[in-house]
Structures are given as C-alpha cells and as structure tokens.
Specification:
There is one protein chain. The protein is an all-alpha fold. The chain is 74% helix and 0% strand. Helix 1 packs parallel to helix 5 and helix 2 crosses helix 3. The chain starts with 8 loop residues before the first helix and ends in a 6-residue tail after the last helix.
C-alpha cells in the first residue's frame, strides 16, 4: 500500500491550510473566543487521538479495499462515508468529517505519510472544536454512545418516566435472549 507520494508539496500545503484555516476563519468571523488552555491542550493531545482514528478508520479499511483491487478514487469515498457515519447524528460534523476524510484518504492512498495526516487532522479538529461556537458544532456530541443516550432520553420522554427506571425492563422485553 505504501508508495511514493504523488501529490506535489504545494498542493498538500494548500489542502492542509484550507482544512485548518477555514474553520478558524469562520469561527473568528462568527465571534468564537476559544479557551486558550483548552486550545493548547487539544493542540498537543488531539494529533495522537487523530493518529488512532486514522489507523482504525483509514489504514485498516484501506488494506482490504486495495487487496480487492479497488482504486483509490473508489476507496476514498467508502472510507470517508464510514468515518462520517461514526459522527452521527451531528449533521454538520458528519459533513465536515466526510469531506476531510475523503481528502485524507486520497492523500494517504497516494502515498502521504500517516503521521503527517494525524498532525493535520489533530490541528483541524482542534480549530473546528475550539473556535466554532458549541451550539454550531452541536457541542461535538457524536457517535454510538451519544446516539444511545439520545434514544434513552427520547424513550423516557415519550413514556414520561425517569430514564433511570425503564431501561432494564424494556430491554428484557425487547431482547429477551440477550439481556440477563
């Protein structure tokens, strides 16, 4: 899967700059005021988390897709869609992660090093999450755990019961073979 990078350095810098600076500019235009401490901490830590996400959602799926003979132009949207779906139900974050992962998958499949992508992804995610207002980003609430929490609260709201009282009886009724 590793080959010589085929994207020119100027094109990579332009893409990296756009992914990092566009959310920063938008956040500043909309009046975002980041917490400097949180911004600094995220800048240091998020690239490591980005590396882990890229391994799981880019490197691991890229290998079987390449082994099946799928060209990068077809593999990149599949990889990007899987990554975006992990950010459901937040539509803004899903759209942004779809576009960003599509770009990063194309770059990776064209030979760009993973650590470079992790740094860019970490900086882009830091800027996006720290400079845009929480209501705009949906407080960055995403993923299966958040979906589970939303579903529990919605079911509790509909039955007008406390969400702490109903899960076990409901789950035992709905899934009798798996609960207990």
């Amino acid at each position: 899967l590793r080959r010589r990078p085929t994207w020119p350095r100027s094109r990579l810098l332009l893409a990296d700059g756009a992914v990092i600076l566009l959310p920063a500019l938008l956040g500043l235009i909309l009046g975002g005021r980041p917490d400097v401490k949180a911004l600094g901490l995220s800048t240091l830590i998020y690239p490591l988390f980005a590396w882990l996400q890229l391994v799981v959602f880019l490197v691991i799926p890229a290998r079987p897709l390449a082994a099946m003979g799928l060209p990068a132009k077809q593999a990149a949207p599949i990889i990007a869609a899987g990554f975006a779906l992990m950010h459901a139900p937040n539509l803004l974050v899903m759209a942004v992660t779809l576009a960003a992962m599509f770009l990063w998958a194309r770059q990776y499949l064209a030979g760009r090093r993973l650590w470079q992508l992790a740094v860019v992804m970490g900086l882009a995610a830091t800027v996006f999450s720290q400079l845009l207002h929480d209501p705009t980003t949906g407080h960055m609430r995403v993923g299966p755990t958040y979906l589970h929490q939303v579903a529990k609260l919605e079911l509790a709201r509909r039955t007008q019961e406390s969400p702490l009282n109903w899960p076990r009886p409901f789950l035992e009724y709905a899934y009798p073979l798996t609960v207990g």
